[in-house]
Amino acid sequence: MVFAYARYLSPTWGVVAVLLGGFLFLETLATPFHRQFYVPDPRISFPYTADSVPDARLVVYACVVPCVVIVLATATQYLRSSGDQKQRSVHLASVSCLAFALALGLNGFVTEFIKIKVGRPRPDFLDRCGLSPKSTAPGLYTVVDCTAPYGEKVLQDGFKSFPSGHSSFAWCGMNFLNLWISGHYGLYKGGAGFSAGRLVPLVPALAALHICISRSQDYKHDALDITCGSLLGLAASWWSYHQFFPRVADDNSELPLVPAQQPVLPV
């Protein structure tokens, strides 16, 4: 039964694997477009600083936290149910994780593809570049004029300003969590009217805003980078969620659109 159910969802997991593989390839092996830059340019003259939200912490916020919340919520539902309800709980967890993985893969691939193709210098680019002492006259320069005082990897990353990857992943993860909590617990059932439960999604939204603002404070992105990255993350999470779940205001918002056509587990 387990293998039959796995085969039932395997085509979509294959799409996720391709998207995540493409993202990792672009992130680790692809060289960004080396756009020419003008000196002096105050927009790219900020100091190079450490990240307030490092990549590892971003992974925790945007990937691990939503997964843990989904697994804990569905596990609690599983323990409190019996018979067919247990099957539905396992199916819900499986479809939720699949939808979330699709959102992350789609967001990561599209964000990194745009970064590589655009090659926009970051606000701290000139510090990363470290122009040669011979290159002091105002004018256009290229990457060959850089001495890379922080290393070649930091220099190449300096051409990946647009859009903000931290912002896109933050909003992708947090908005998906918002949608999932709202749908699973029926926070918007019943139409208009205020209830305290509808404030719960504010917590993930504030976490995403914190990450976005930190990218400006660290001089890694400007407002355009952050805004476009945020919109990408919101779009990827919204689209992926609604491939598997109805609208959060729907009467059956907690039920996946993907039926469990195969027995899930021998429970």
From TrEMBL:
InterPro entries: PAP-like, PAP2/HPO, PAP2/HPO_sf. It comes from Ogataea polymorpha. GO terms for cellular component: membrane. One of its GO terms (molecular function) is phosphatidate phosphatase activity. It is found in: Membrane. It is a multi-pass membrane protein. Coiled coil: none annotated. This is Uncharacterized protein.
